[in-house]
Write a structure and sequence with these properties.
This protein has 205 residues and is an alpha+beta fold. The protein is built from 5 helices and 6 strands, in the order αββααααββββ. A 4-stranded antiparallel beta sheet has the order 3-4-5-6, covered by helices on one side. The chain has a two-stranded antiparallel ribbon with strand order 1-2.
């Protein structure tokens, strides 16, 4: 009888140990599942899906500080594109200039007003001149804030009788501001200055 009771007690202890092991495994499995779910949710939050031409494209969100050089260079390029791309149409000129002025401070506005007072834009319209710009490179110093930049570009001025290519070098500083529809990179160009703007060649048409 004692032997039977001892056998029952031993079986009960085995069952209890086995149950404890099962419960521990279940808790570990639940913890692992919760951890993986949270990790997947965090990764999903950094994904952006963009619909373009009927196709869903996946993009990844990242902190602005990781993309400062790329975004800063693109901001400088787009500013120069809008400021220096002109056609003999007042609507086009004003549209581009307005876009450029949202990306820079009064230093750009002063240059625009000087050109306007000197009749530059009126001459573009009356003489049917088209002006294009190609940015060769933009150097950015992100080690100090505000970020210093220097832009190297070439202007092509198309007149009725000639095409003039000019070398353009400008410099300035970039300050962080809030992003908006009219300033998607969240930078503002300050102390913008033209270092060089000289003729390289003239081709007769």
């Amino acid at each position: 009888m004692f032997r039977k009771a001892k056998s029952i007690q031993s079986s009960f202890e085995h069952i209890r140990a086995f149950t404890a092991i099962i419960i521990t495994c279940v808790f570990c499995l639940c913890g692992f599942t919760i951890y993986k779910s949270m990790k997947l949710a965090a990764a999903t939050q950094n994904r952006i899906y963009v619909l373009a031409n009927g196709k869903v494209l996946e993009a990844f969100a990242s902190e602005k500080k990781e993309n400062i050089p790329v975004e800063a260079k693109d901001h400088v390029k787009m500013f120069h594109f809008y400021f220096f791309t002109l056609d003999p149409d007042e609507t086009v000129i004003m549209s581009n200039i307005n876009k450029a002025l949202y990306m820079a401070d009064n230093s750009a506005k002063r240059q625009y007003e000087n050109l306007k007072e000197n009749g530059y834009y009126s001459n573009v319209i009356s003489a049917n001149i088209s002006q294009k710009i190609e940015v060769d490179s933009v150097s950015i110093n992100v080690d100090q804030y505000p970020y210093y930049f220097r832009c190297y570009a070439r202007q092509k001025i198309v007149r009725a009788t000639s095409i003039v290519t000019r070398n353009l070098i400008t410099e300035g500083y970039l300050r962080n501001i809030s992003r908006s529809d009219k300033n998607s990179h969240g930078f503002l160009i300050e102390r913008w200055n033209t270092i060089e703007n000289r003729d390289l060649k003239t081709v007769t048409r």
